[in-house]
Structure formats: structure tokens, C-alpha cells
Write a structure and sequence with these properties.
mainly alpha
Length: 81
């Protein structure tokens, strides 16, 4: 299995990692692996939030649209089937 050694880690990062490792009853190395595995998830979440933000801005900037048929009429028609 590959390994990783980190030099000149900022003190605040080391302390935060140490606190999390203690809280989760893990070694420092185990906690580092857990944190590193979360990176793809965090990147994907950031992308989703960016897309949602762009959609919200676009919706806010466009005028409201008139629907050709009222939603209630569509629901009634669907229930009759």
C-alpha cells in the first residue's frame, strides 16, 4: 500500500487533525486517510452548489412565465384517466 509523509505541515492543520483523530478514536494517520477520502465528495458538493447558485440567479433575473394550462387543470385531467 502506498504511503505519504507530510513535511512542514502548518501547526493549525496538525492540531485540527489531532483533535479530530482523538474525538473519533483514530490514529493521526487513520484520520488523515479519512479526511483525504472526503476530498472528492467535497469537490462534487462544491460543484453542485455552484450550479444551484447559477440556476437561482437565472431564475431571479428572468420574468415569470405563463403556463399554457393551469397546474390544477393538469392534475384533474391526470386523475380522470
Amino acid at each position: 500500500m502506498p504511503s505519504l509523509q507530510i513535511r512542514d505541515m502548518p501547526e493549525e492543520v496538525y492540531e485540527a487533525l489531532t483533535v479530530r483523530a482523538r474525538r473519533e478514536h483514530r490514529s493521526l494517520a487513520q484520520q488523515a486517510v479519512v479526511e483525504l477520502r472526503r476530498i472528492p465528495e467535497l469537490v462534487a458538493r462544491g460543484r453542485r452548489l455552484d450550479v444551484l447558485d447559477r440556476l437561482r440567479k437565472r431564475i431571479a433575473s428572468e420574468p415569470p412565465r405563463c403556463l399554457p394550462v393551469a397546474p390544477a387543470d393538469l392534475i384533474r385531467e391526470d386523475r380522470r384517466r
